[in-house]
Specification:
alpha/beta; 46% helix; 11% strand; globular; binds farnesyl diphosphate; transferase
């Protein structure tokens, strides 16, 4: 897979160089039709460039977090400051969320979990709630569509949801189920979206599930340990259920009832920018900060 000098080449130069190399190989395959050659070339280039592309300056591949969690805060303040409707802020937030997913996938992050709607958000004005629910439905619908991959540059993303679905609109829950089902075998970035989610809710639902298993004789009280509780949390769908890094935007320095159980040893990063203005360079800055941390998990030095 490694190509000589690949790290030094500019993306344009790199593409050109790879193109030349692979054209040479392809021309040997005289029997292939032109269209097929081009298609293979595109696929091969995409794979090589994605895997080998140098990360933004300052980031080390071996220190990338596996799981990044984001509290996407500040949409309304961003909109109000500009004299716009709060809904515009949420729509901008959606754009930034899609961009973070694209970058996470490109840089080899495995799980991106986002706090889209908390169990406390129901106290917001009715118009805002309606706008949010229809925005979620719009986005979640695209996740379940056949051409989701085309919309997402083919990064083979899997989508899961966490939170209490019983209070969400039925039509939204239907689309969430479809999206989960359609993407469940995908091996790329795992996007976990908290909708009507909170950390306390998660601990409560895990407790209920464990108690009911004890009641039914499936589990003994002695079987209850941290590992078992972790397996009952809603992040159990992910290969890497525990966030290495939590980013919260908009200058607020709180967890606000996000993944309370899972965040025990997560590195926290608070960005001043509001979510709609959080850009690639801000994400890089957060990741650089993470890579400089000394993670000990309460014990010996980790790295
Ligand atoms: C799943 C999905 C498609 C999400 C995209 C839209 C999105 C980013 C939703 C987040 C909504 C929300 C409650 C943001 C918090 O900012 P805030 O509204 O509390 O802003 P404030 O702190 O300025 O009041």
């Amino acid at each position: 897979m490694a190509e000589e000098g690949i790290e030094k080449a500019s993306p344009a130069g790199l593409k050109e160089e790879l193109l030349q190399k692979h054209m040479a190989v392809m021309t040997a395959e005289e029997s292939l039709r032109e269209g097929l050659k081009a298609e293979l070339l595109e696929k091969h280039m995409a794979a090589v460039i994605t895997a080998e592309e140098a990360l933004p300056e300052g980031l080390k591949a071996e220190l990338m977090p596996k799981h990044v969690a984001v509290i996407m805060d500040g949409n309304r303040r961003w909109a109000r400051e500009r004299g716009m409707a709060v809904e515009v802020g949420h729509r901008e937030g959606r754009r930034v969320m899609a961009e973070l997913a694209r970058l996470s996938s490109l840089w080899g992050i495995k799980v991106l979990s986002v706090f889209a709607f908390s169990t406390e958000n129901w106290t917001r004005p009715r118009e805002e709630l309606e706008a949010l629910m229809s925005l979620y439905e719009e986005v979640v619908t695209t996740y379940g569509e056949e051409d989701f991959e085309r919309h997402n540059s083919g990064y083979n993303a899997r989508v899961s949801f966490m939170g209490d679905r019983s209070k969400l609109p039925e039509s939204l829950v239907e689309k969430m189920n479809i999206a989960e089902e359609k993407t469940k075998a995908n091996k790329g970035l795992h996007i976990i979206i908290g909708l009507n989610y909170s950390g306390r809710y998660d601990i409560m639902q895990a407790t209920r599930s464990i108690v009911s298993k004890v009641k039914d004789g499936i589990l003994q009280i002695e079987d209850i340990n941290e590992k078992l509780i972790s397996e009952e949390m809603e992040t159990n769908c992910a290969e890497f259920p525990v966030p290495d890094l939590l980013i919260r935007t908009s200058g607020e320095q709180r967890i606000s009832n996000f993944m309370l159980w899972q965040l025990a040893y997560t590195e926290l990063y608070f960005a001043e920018k509001k979510f709609p203005e959080f850009e690639e360079e801000d994400y890089v800055e957060a990741l650089i900060s993470f890579q400089k941390r000394d993670r000990r998990f309460g014990g010996m030095k980790y790295k």
